[in-house]
Predict the 3D structure of the following.
Amino acid sequence: MNGKRIMIVEDEALVAMMVEDLLGDLGYEVAGSFGAVGDALAWLGGDQDPPDGAVLDVNIGGEMVFPVAEALRARGVPFVFATGYGDLPRRGFEDISVLSKPINIGQLGVAVGRFGHAA
Amino acid sequence: MLDMATDDASRRQPETALLTLVETIEALSGARTIDDVAAVVRSSARQISGADGVAFVLRDKGDCWYLDEDAIGPLWKGRRFPLNACISGWAMLNKQTVVIPDIYLDDRIPHDAYRPTFVKSLVITPVRPDDPIAAIGAYWAENHQPAPDVVAKLQVMARATAAALENGRLYASLNDSLERRSFLLRELDHRVKNTLASVQSIASQTLRTAPSPADFAESFEARLMALSRAHEMLTKQAWGRADLHDILATAFEPFGGLEGPRFTVRGPAMDISPETAVALHMTLHELVVNAAKYGALSVPAGHVVVDWAIEDVAPKRELVLRWIERGGPAITRAPEREGFGSRLIKRGLARDLGGSATMAFEPEGLNFTLRAPLSTRVAQA
């Protein structure tokens, strides 16, 4: 374990469970795993330490994940998107990397490995 | 000289009118919207008829809607009258052209609506005579009997207008279909990728806990079939929202179905989003497979009850769904190893929906309870 704590926002349980496993395989700890934008925002608003990074699905049960992305940015927490949409409009977040689904563990490892290195 | 000039004009006029009519038909054939059609009618009907004013009137449910006009004085542009209270309504309802040389001698005319206008005589012709959708009106400032060829030209124009309105409707519907098609292709791409991600997840998690390749093959295939049945159920309703009862029926189908003696299900109609329906179906699949292997469905007398209700838990309302096994072998303790199934059952849906799940291994059988706040994903029907 490298001790880094990663947050997951993903509305499909099956996919979330796999991302949790993959992060575990890569030596990360799951800081929190949420299926709804509101739950993720409520957790971020709590008084625990912010996570070291986050993996965000974009369309969360019909809601866009961007409020969570903004909250993370405001706290200086790095994140990546993971989505099945080929060309998703994400105004204001053009510089954030996007992992396509199905998720490749190698790409996930590279993206999450950059957390803490890039500003 | 004066006589000759008049003579020239009267000889030239029918040709000009005919040419305008042909040009109008050409312009109408290029019109794509009702507004395009109205603009063409407005700009040419006066020239064709030689009238002092023209109006383009749409039939809008029970009303005549005076959409556009071109006249020497204001008519009724933008106004609506009931079909049975205006003469264009009469023309549309009676499916025939009406010619009135003196409007104040005709009882079908609502005289009060005409008194502020210049109109003394008129011709109204319906557009698409067998089922009128509009009318073209031509109005004159003096009493006169409009010539038969003027009436005939207005009728030709009305026929071209009918074709143009139909073209416009087809054009709009074709455009809608094309937009819908590209939207559906994007959605399909998204759904296929998400489904592949689900399959990837099922494969990798089944592999993690499978004791042997044969166990892997059996569990993986059963889960793949469950995913496939969930998709089939959703496809039948065009990937719209699903009812909880239908989800249960689909999940229990390989085990004798809801009609069989092994299941009792009861609860109010629930309206579940497609993504949640898939997760719920997969969860029920794991529960029912577990019951068939180790629980109530592993013996002939066993029985599963699924009941659910909406409870008020201030400040929100929750769906409380219970899975209760009875009549099976006594369960002494929970399974030691946590596999894909129990992980999905305990955390999957509860995590997705911001709720909670509990699994209790009681002597009479397994009890599973899911509590989920009502949301767009889980709503009361």
Observations:
- The first strand of chain B starts at residue 53 and ends at 60.
- Residues 10-173 of chain B form a domain with the Beta-Lactamase fold (CATH 3.30.450.40).
